[in-house]
Amino acid sequence: MNNLTFLMPCRIESEDRLKNVITSISYITHHFPQSPIIIKENDTQSVFQAKALPVIEKIFGDIPTNLYHIFEQSDNKFFYKTRILNDLLLASKTEVVYNYDVDVVYPVSSYVTAYNMIMHGGFDAVYPYGCGVYQWAVDYPIPLFDAFIQSKFDLNVLQSKCRLQPSVMGWGQMIKRQVYIDSYMWNENFISWGAEDCEYYYRLQALGYCVGRVNDMVYHFDHARTFNSHYHNPKFMDNHNLWQTIRTWDKDAIIRYYESQSYVKERRSQLNASV
Question: Is the pLDDT of residue 65 over 90?
Fold first, then answer.
């Protein structure tokens, strides 16, 4: 999968997040060392550089050559995921990109199937997990973290701490880079966490793109609900209300709205300048 780049927005707000970031990057690197991983961290200081990278280096004996870390210093308490994803798009060069949450892994076959669906099957975007009850929620204490790494990332090691939960939207999406651009990218009016995944899925379908799914499991590692991932986050309801509005629009209304957005004009200018 050398024509695929993993795009990872990151803020490490807890020890859970630290374990999850190390796990997801190491899992991808172990199975797909030829695929670039670009991780952009936005925080007051780089926790990834100080705490995650040394562990990853120890796992592989060196810093993986496919891993690129970008740090952006910010005192903003809100983690601006949509903007960072669009920043990562600008940094990518491959035909396909994977907008990837740092707290999940999938069976190896799911990545490969999704990639082949895009490269050879006529799909524009693919969600590599099923809709329904396809989520293994993983209780992930340190002993299991250690065991998973020592097993060379055998998913069977996680099963003793898994429980089934619903899966609808979120976690990750593989998409043609040009479709990502043409579909107006992530909506930067969604700030912090909540509903941005649902809106983008709806938008892709409303705009007529071919969107597929892989009916297999997602392994979602538990983490503390810190400020940016909590339902009490003051941006959560703003995001929800924006989604409730957009979901009532048809294709023409969606196009009119996005063509008027200042972030779209700014991103197009940046893309043109980078050519």
Answer: yes
At 163, is the pLDDT very low, low, confident or very high (cuts 50, 70, 90)? very high
* Contact criterion met (CB below 8 Å) for 66 and 33: yes
Task: Measure the CA–CA gap between 265 and 184, rounded to whole angstroms.
Answer: 10
Note the pLDDT tens digit of each residue in 141-158: 999 999 999 999 999 999
The pair of three-digit structure tokens given for residue 2, joined into one six-digit string: 């050398």
User: Domains in the chain, please, with CATH?
Assistant: 4-269 (3.90.550.10)
In sequence order, the 6+-apart residues with CB closer than 8 A to the CB of 79 are: 9, 11, 42, 192, 193, 228
User: What letter represents residue 228's amino acid?
Assistant: N
**Structure confidence by residue, pLDDT tens digits, 210-230:** 999 999 999 999 866 565 455
Which contiguous run of DSSP H or E holds residue 119? Answer: helix 108-120
* CA–CA dist 229, 136 (Å, integer): 19
Q: What is the DSSP string of 8-54?
A: EEE---SHHHHHHHHHHHHHHHHH-TTS-EEEEEEESS-HIIIIIHH
Contact assessment for residue 15 and residue 145, using Cβ atoms and an 8 Å cutoff: no
